Amino acid sequence: MANDEPLLVAQDTYLKSGIHIGTKFRTKYMEKFIYKTRPDGLSVLNLQQIDARIKMAANLLAQYNPEDIIVVSRRENGWKPIRLFGSHTGIRVVPGRYMPGVLTNPKLEAYTEAKIVLVTDSWPDRNAIKDALQIGMPVIALCDTNNQSNDIDLVIPCNNKGKKSLALLFYILAREYLKHRGVIKTDEDFKATPEDFCED
User: Fold this and answer.
1) Largest CB tally within 10 Å, which of 37, 105, 141, 147?
2) Is 2 inside any structural domain?
3) Cα separation of 27 and 4, whole Å?
4) Where in the sequence is the domain holding 59, given as residue range(s)?
5) 58 contact partners, CB below 8 Å, separation of at least 6
6) Which pLDDT tens digit goes with each residue over 36-60?
7) How many domains does the chain have?
8) Where are the alpha helices (DSSP H) in the chain?
9) pLDDT at position 150, please?
10) Is 87 part of any domain?
């Protein structure tokens, strides 16, 4: 890879997780992240760009206290990764259905105040994005090649459907968030592994 800056994890680790394997469908916005199309029609995302965007997301999240961040995943393969992400970082997570109004309606029992939201898929998690938009809250979203990216402030291009891909992504984000916040000093200080984040 041309860029001299080291990747957040070994290239091999990225490749084994399938984080770069997209879908057969591609939206106009996601085209700029696509490296090539395989003979079977699946789009392949650019690994360097995935890595760069994860770094950007970690830097952005690290500017917020854990209680000011909320992570949402309607997609089941994201439930274990975001729960573990939450337990390592202290960040609030919503695995499963996100109730419209959680961020905007103080009358709701589940109402929560936050300053930034991260969603695992902009389509199933659109209610959270809608709420965030209403109050002008920044949105980070994991986007596959078939995602629209309207109303998203920071797109992380990736396979946002696969168990291993989501596990690796949230493992890296947790580790980098803790490093940026000064909770841990080196990668080795983070005792979890990507496998821990993966659904059995």
Assistant:
1) 141
2) no
3) 30
4) 11-197
5) 172, 173, 176, 177, 180
6) 999 999 999 999 999 999 999 999 9
7) 1
8) 11-17, 47-61, 79-89, 126-134, 163-180
9) 84
10) yes
Q: Give CA separation, 169 vs 21, 41, 46, 99, 151, in Å.
A: 14, 24, 15, 25, 22
User: Six-digit token pair at 137?
Assistant: 């809250």
**Closest to 177 measured CA to CA, from 102, 73, 84:** 84
* C-beta separation of 68 from 135 below 8 A: no
Distance CA 75, CA 123 (A): 10
CA distance 187 to 168: 14
CB 157 within 8 A of CB 45: yes
Residue 75 lies in a domain: yes
Of 3-7, 54-58, 91-95, 182-186, which range is least confident?
3-7
pLDDT exceeds cutoff 70 at 2 = no
Q: How long, in residues, is the chain?
A: 200
Q: What is the DSSP letter of 21?
A: B
198, two tokens: 């993966």
Residue-wise pLDDT for 86-114, tens only, equals: 999 999 999 999 999 999 999 999 899 99
